[in-house]
Write a structure and sequence with these properties.
alpha+beta, 7-stranded mixed β-sheet, 6-stranded mixed β-sheet, 16 helices, 21 strands, globular
């Protein structure tokens, strides 16, 4: 059970701006070494980043640059098993810093505790490191590089112990993860298995584990890894269908031609570098002229179901949304469905997709759960506040998918205008779900998470900012509203719920709907 945990902090949104790194080495299941360094990034510091980690330009003055520090770091990583929480960020920081210094990549395998936890500890409202540390009683000064690396190491040790695995390799293989690799000239990312193929075990909190005897999980079929090799497509002919394939930009793929698919599930997921960013996904039903013919042809949090039942939206958690498409119910005018991701008040709050590490879309057969294709991207995005992820479109009577991954400015409003729509300014008349959380004096973390999602949906439908809502209630700051919508509150009172309902002009039952 030997590995090295790593964590980077950056001076700004540029991933080559590492200003601190922490490394924790584990041997035979015990922490044997803890080290951290401040780094002079030779770049400017953003106030937002300083506010997160507290590192200022004066603190790194006279400290080594990444290029000067690398001879110290390299032997601690070369040939090792490296783990990070949200490894897509930390590994990209490492690669960008190496590229910026024209240094060859080291060779090692790497793992991600964020992706491990999302699969192995299901149904948590948040998988941020501070929330997982609280769950496992791990002391943490969040965004201190050494503390984050140590918490990541302890979290992995707990997961290994709880799932009776002696190494991150064994844990990855048992649950179908594809191990990440960094090597001279390139890398392959650490990735989670398809949802329908993942092997699940019941999670036991550390304090309860000693009180129960666990039975080994029943064997399940091994997950076949997804090929990451680019596939060239011809312009003159449709690309042959490729199932469970990872696509590159512009690589079109058949969806309905070679399979009998009447309903499709499109899952959109994203990983944030800045947890304060307010992101959501939407789908536009477009005609042959690339515009929406009716106002409700934009499916999003304020209009989650199309009038004819052809497309339905569901926000799974703060980092994931899904769309269910019934092809047989689509109006004949609909020739294309564009999937987008937008940042709420991006320009006003200086939020952009440069603060998002990775965006993914997966297409699945809704009836069988079989993955048809996936597309992920993220590196290279800058100050955009809206992204068109990809589009389903009709070609010779069959539906195909085109991965796009292009950014735009102006957020959801700009996309709506581009697709021929005006953004609604009033609350849509969407009936509350018949199922709701029972009223009580204090709501637990899971119920509070659901309340936060409902508050966010109603607030944004009213074009009301968090600050405006807070002021309407009488709060001095929007911190409580922000934490509620991000799923960071452990509890919430009914008295607070009544205040929110009155301020949003809805019933408490509306905010308690599941």
């Amino acid at each position: 059970m030997d590995f090295v945990a790593i964590d980077f902090e950056t001076a700004n949104s540029n991933r080559s701006s590492a200003c601190s790194v922490g490394l924790v080495e584990v041997q035979n299941g015990l922490i044997v070494s803890e080290q951290s360094w401040l780094i002079d990034p030779k770049q400017h510091f953003d106030g937002m980043n300083i506010g997160v980690h507290g590192i200022t330009p004066s603190m790194v003055a006279g400290k080594p640059s990444f290029e000067q520090l690398w001879p110290t770091l390299q032997p601690m990583l070369e040939g090792k098993h490296v783990v990070a929480h949200n490894a897509s960020f930390d590994m990209s920081v490492l690669r960008y810093c190496l590229d910026n210094s024209t240094i060859q990549y080291p060779s090692f395998q790497y793992y991600c505790t964020y992706l491990f936890a999302k699969r192995l500890i299901p149904d948590l409202p948040s998988y941020r490191l501070n929330d997982l540390a609280r769950l496992h009683y791990i002391p943490l000064n969040h965004h201190d590089a050494l503390d984050d690396a140590k918490a990541c190491a302890i979290l992995l040790l707990n997961l290994l112990h709880n799932h009776e695995c002696d190494s991150p390799i064994a844990l990855s293989k048992e649950h179908g993860y594809k191990i990440g690799k960094l090597f001279m000239g390139g890398y392959t990312p650490f990735s989670a298995p398809a949802a329908n193929k993942a092997k699940k075990k019941q999670y036991l909190p550390p304090q309860a584990e000693a009180e129960q005897k666990r039975s080994p999980a029943p064997p399940s079929p091994a997950t076949e890894p997804i090929s990451l090799a680019p596939v060239q497509s011809k312009r003159t002919e449709p690309t042959p269908a490729r199932h469970s394939s990872s696509l590159i930009r512009g690589q079109k793929i058949d969806v309905t031609k070679n399979e009998s698919i009447d309903k499709l599930l499109a899952e959109v997921e994203w990983d944030l570098l800045n947890p304060d960013i307010d992101l959501d996904s939407s789908a536009f039903l477009l005609d042959a002229n690339n515009v929406c013919t009716k106002d409700d042809d934009c499916i999003f949090y304020g209009n989650p179901d199309h009038r004819n039942g052809s497309v339905a939206y569901h926000k799974i958690n703060s980092n994931k949304a899904q769309f269910k498409i019934a092809f047989d119910r689509l109006a004949f005018q609909v020739q294309k469905i564009a999937f987008s991701l937008t940042i709420y008040e991006g320009e006003e709050l200086s939020h952009s997709f440069s603060q998002v590490s990775e965006i993914r879309i997966r297409l699945l057969n809704d009836r069988t759960g079989k993955e048809i294709a996936s597309f992920s991207f993220g590196e290279g995005l800058t100050q955009e506040t809206a992204i068109v992820i990809g589009e389903l479109y009709v070609y010779k009577g069959e539906w195909k998918f085109n991965p796009i991954g292009s950014g735009f400015f102006g957020g959801l409003r700009a996309l709506c205008l581009d697709f021929g729509l005006e953004v609604q300014q009033s609350l849509p008349e969407v009936a509350a779900d018949a199922q709701s959380i029972a009223s009580k004096d204090i709501y637990d973390v899971y119920e509070t998470f659901q309340i936060g999602q409902n508050v966010e949906r109603v607030r944004r439908s009213l074009s009301t900012t968090q600050k405006q809502l807070a002021e309407k209630i009488g709060y001095k700051s929007a911190n409580l509203i922000s934490r509620l919508e991000r799923g960071e509150l452990d509890r919430f009172s009914h008295a607070q719920l009544i205040q929110l309902a009155e301020a949003l002009n809805v019933t408490t039952r509306h905010l308690l709907s599941r």
